[in-house]
Amino acid sequence: MFKKVLIANRGEIALRVVRALHELGIASVAVYADDDAQAPHVQAADAAVALGATGPSAYLDATRLLAIAREQGADAIHPGYGFLSERADFARACAAAGVRFIGPTPEQLERFGDKAQARALALRLGVPLLPGSAGAVTLDEAQAFLATQDGAGVMLKAVSGGGGRGMRAVRTADELAAAYERCRGEARAAFGVDGVYVERLMAGARHIELQVLGDGQDVLALGERECTLQRRFQKLVEIAPSPSLPQALREQLIAAALQMARAVRYEGLGTFEFLVDAASADLPFVFMEANPRLQVEHTITEEVFGVDLVQAQIRLAAGERLRAIGLDPAAPPRPQGCAIQWRINAETLDAQGHATPGSGQLSRFDLPAGPGVRVDTHGFAGAAPSPHYDTLLAKLIVHARGGFDAALRRSQRALAEFHIEGVPTNLPLLRALAARSEMTSQGVHTRWLEAVLPELLDASKHIAVSAQSTGAAGQNHSKPVADAPAHAIVAPMPARLVQLSVAEGDEVPAGAELAVLEAMKMEHVLAAPHAGRVARLLAVPGIQDTQCGFKMFTKEAAQTLFPLQRIDGWGFDVEVLYIARRRGMRLVEAPINWYYQRDSRVRPFHDTVNMVRELLKIRRNGNHGCYDLP
Predict the structure, then answer these.
(1) What span, in angstroms and rounded, lies between the C-alpha atoms of 418 and 302?
(2) pLDDT recorded at residue 354
(3) What is the pLDDT at residue 625?
(4) Contact, 238 vs 297, CB < 8 A?
(5) 53, 276, 498, 507: which has the fewest Cβ within 10 Å?
């Protein structure tokens, strides 16, 4: 068994892994970005090391993570989910460094982390598939594929990663180019790989995934999870087992998942995902993708099967067999009751399903309790969620031995007991969803939630108003941008400007794309609220508005907006610059030691820089800019 494990992740999953390691008697090492310094997983781990950077890129720095693992004497790395969890190159680097990657083998990551390779395996084994590309495609290739689908539309998907990032449904040729670029941008930001593949769009389907465990010789399935309730391809509610799946079809899905896992002698945890149309006699299910990692929704499988999947994953990585950890492939455990997971996100939705990440500080964070209620979260009263990451704030997991109806009633009670103030969340929306008759009957498909979203939003507003403590529910408390001129269109969230889609003087209709923003690892279109003419462009690509009185700039944006000066011939090597524009600061070039160690003239700037760093969590890499007041 491992003696010490580094957790290369953040948020609730990092805390979940810390707890699993503690119960196994294994020491834990947390890592954290600058904007995660006060996160619960940092406090809970036996040791914690700063990554010295801000945002998702901090957790994607494989070289830095391995260096910390060696310094701390860790003999294994747990990647959690997202970030580096599906990167075969990272798993190989771990092996080369003598550190065990807790997950499948590099070869399995390569096969299943690349969705096109996973499709090729399914094709070879005779597992049903939708028509699609054999690998990443160019825009021209995607357009050619769309033209052959007889109006059915296509799905664009990132070849790596998951979580709904890098995915778009496209029905017309006019939509394709923009969707293609959004998919590539999101995939690059979240997974470090921007390849996109294409497959035929399957309308009216349900999304079912199978939980598989393997030890390199034997494989076992711990049932399925119903993941049909989604918004813009991001799961919102998951159920185990599926309350609507016929037993005969369930057995076919299990057989297909195990066939694929056996073919590669699978190791560790994996999820095999399918689209299901039980009413179709010709094609009742198709393989969609495999996720060779721990899933966000692993919790509900744990509840109905009584198996700690995180501990099982760690023990399998340490070389134990399935039977040694109490799982017999010849006689897998049977599910007990039903469990439902509700994803509580720090966001609000509009009628089109576009999410606006919430910002602020959690002034109230009261968790529900009682039999069969579990909450996995990194939230706490006083926390201020960073705008740089996924909006997931908490996972409410409800289990009832009486089956789905009992679990749904218990969910309604637990959702009503959950109180969050200070940051807008989707709690009112989830309460409205839990009350819908379609939830009881499960008469839903993967696009159903988007179809009824206007009704749900209307109901959620009434729920928020009638609640005894409305607090900040449904409101975004971001401060107004004080220096924005009249009639300016301001980003609705803290975000980075990816691109401007218009030029000064352009006449635009209502709803036209003005710019593309990146927030919470997703790309968002800033649309014109009404028709008009673009009089001025007040920003350039690369700016990130923090909505706290300062702005941050990439090097390219800074060079456009500010004159640069050289000091003593120092070179310039900065990945990201932050400039307190409202304080009239002027950017100069110098290494970080310059203002720490030079004469008293510089020391006042040292204090100012520390203040800026605290507010904006400055990312520093190599030589860095310093700030000079005129």
Answers:
(1) 22
(2) 77
(3) 37
(4) yes
(5) 507
Indicate the DSSP class of residue 46.
S
- Kindly report whether the peptide bond that precedes residue 106 is cis, defined as omega within 30 degrees of 0: no
**pTM score:** 0.77
What pLDDT does residue 164 have? 63
Q: Which two tokens stand for residue 353?
A: 């399903």
Tokens of 203: 């309308």
- 66 or 535: which leads in pLDDT: 66
| Average pLDDT value for residue range 90-117 | 95
**579 exposed, middle or buried (CB, 10 Å; 0-12, 13-18, 19+)?**
buried
How far apart are the C-alpha atoms of 161 and 7, rounded to whole Å? 18
Number of neighbouring beta carbons within 10 Å of residue 367 = 17
Tokens of 184: 């590539």
35-44 CB burial, b ≥16 within 10 A, e <16: bbeebbbbeb
Of the candidates 446, 559, 394, the one whose C-alpha atom is nearest the C-alpha of residue 155 is: 446
Q: How far is CA 447 from CA 65, 196, 309, 320, in A?
A: 39, 22, 30, 41
Lookup result for tokens 């997931």: 392
What is the structure's pLDDT at 120? 93
Residue 614 has pLDDT above 90, yes or no: no
- Backbone angles phi and psi of 228, in degrees to 5: -75, -30
Angle 427-434/448-466 helices, nearest 10 degrees? 110
